[in-house]
Every structure is written in structure tokens, then in C-alpha cells.
Specification:
Largest sheet: 8 strands, mixed
Distance between the termini: 42 Å
Structural class: mainly beta
Shape: globular
Radius of gyration: 17 Å
Number of strands: 14
Number of domains: 2
């Protein structure tokens, strides 16, 4: 018989990864407070551990929403490189036990000096990736931060390779370090058709969940897994 245990998290990320599968993560929740980060993952041989809609379905048939408090049955911890927060799901239904409000979310904001360093950038980004050697020095892959001067912008990338795609990116500063990172929060990327390309949209008072993704083409990429705005909640 498979041994299992449960952990309860407050959902702080439910982002696009190999559509329709998602990357879900949050802070452990118990005794009225938040603990360590936890990322439930599926079998790495399928979609690099991404969670399918069937695997994340709640007992009432719905899907987890941001700030939901969810009890998740797990099998074992499966740290994967800098993603030390990963735990393997066992396939049983998840249970929603509550929900947090904006006021409590603000108490969870972290204040790192920067987001896993700087100095490694893609063509379209800024300080948005890590080499495997750099990632090896990271002892975690998730942060909840309140950035300075946050803007989002939509642009078309890949046209030079005959593979044009619209992409939303977030421009902001943490400490003294500027960033330009890809947004994977479907609540915001779904608004791209309504956004004028190249126009920067300011988001005041936002809180971001930032994640380091799985390696791709030899690098780990820093991603905006969730954008929280006060008027969303």
C-alpha cells in the first residue's frame, strides 16, 4: 500500500505549464499561519511534473483558485535541483478548507535583496535566467514579493525565427535590481488580446509570486507565476 501524508497550503500560484496542465504552489498553512513553500508535482516522466486538471480537481469538481486553502494528499518529497519545495501527489482528490483575503496575503510578502542574483539575460528579458551552475546555489525557487514600479507589456516575439507568439512580460525592480520576466499567470496572459502591443500598463500595489522554472535549452528561467492586485480580491 502506498504510504501518504497530507499538507495544507494557501494557493499562491496556478500558472500555465504545458497547457492545459499547470504549475501550482503555495505556502504551507496551519495553526492560523503560513510556513514553508510547497509545490505539488506529478510524475516527472509526464509533462515534467506539471499538474493536470484531473489531478488538481477539488472534491466539489472545481479547480483551485488563488488564495484557496487546500489540503493535498502527497507521497514523498521530491526536490529537483533548486526546486527544493516539490512534493509528489498521490492522485487522490484535493480538499478546499478555506480561503484567505488580501489583508492576510500582505503579511506573507518576502523581502529578498534580489531574485536569485542578476547578470544573466535573454534577448527579450532582463536578469531573467540562470545557468545550471547559478541555479545550483539557489536554495529555493519561489518568492512572494511586492515590486517597485511594476508594469506589464505585451509584445510579439520569435518572428525572426518564423514562430511569432504574443508574450506578456513584467518590468519592475526588487531592491536595486531591475527585472523583465515572462508572465505565466493565465488570469493576466488571457488579457493579451485586449492589450495594445508595446504599451506599458502600470500595476500599482501589486504582489508577485516569482518562480524558477524547470531547465529549458540549458537555462532556468525566472517567471511571474502570479500577479495579485487588491481589486482582484
Amino acid at each position: 500500500m502506498m504510504m501518504t501524508y497530507t499538507r495544507t497550503i494557501v494557493c499562491l500560484a496556478n500558472s500555465n505549464k504545458h497547457h492545459p496542465s499547470r504549475c501550482i504552489a503555495g505556502r504551507e498553512w496551519g495553526n492560523g499561519g503560513a510556513g514553508a513553500w510547497l509545490r505539488p508535482v506529478a510524475d516527472y516522466n509526464v509533462d515534467e511534473g506539471a499538474i493536470s486538471p484531473d489531478a488538481s480537481r477539488l472534491q466539489d469538481g472545481t479547480q483551485p483558485q488563488m488564495l484557496d486553502v487546500i489540503e493535498i494528499p502527497l507521497v514523498r518529497a521530491v526536490p529537483h535541483g533548486c526546486q527544493v519545495e516539490n512534493h509528489l501527489i498521490n492522485g487522490a482528490a484535493w480538499i478546499k478548507t478555506g480561503r484567505l483575503d488580501w489583508a492576510y496575503l500582505e503579511t506573507l510578502v518576502e523581502t529578498p535583496r534580489n531574485l536569485w542574483g542578476s547578470g544573466n539575460s535573454t534577448r527579450n528579458g532582463l536578469n531573467d535566467r540562470l545557468s545550471p551552475a547559478e541555479a545550483a546555489f539557489c536554495h529555493g525557487s519561489l518568492y512572494l514579493v511586492r515590486p517597485a514600479n511594476l508594469r506589464v507589456v505585451v509584445s510579439t516575439t520569435g518572428a525572426e525565427f518564423n514562430n511569432p507568439k504574443k508574450q506578456m512580460r513584467a518590468l519592475f525592480t526588487i531592491g536595486m535590481t531591475p527585472y523583465n520576466l515572462k508572465v505565466t499567470d493565465p488570469r493576466y496572459t488571457g488579457r493579451m488580446p485586449q492589450c495594445a502591443e508595446g504599451v506599458e500598463y502600470s500595476l500599482k500595489d501589486a504582489i508577485l509570486c516569482v518562480s524558477i522554472g524547470e531547465p529549458w535549452n540549458g537555462f532556468h528561467y525566472k517567471l511571474i507565476a502570479a500577479i495579485f492586485m487588491p481589486n482582484d480580491y
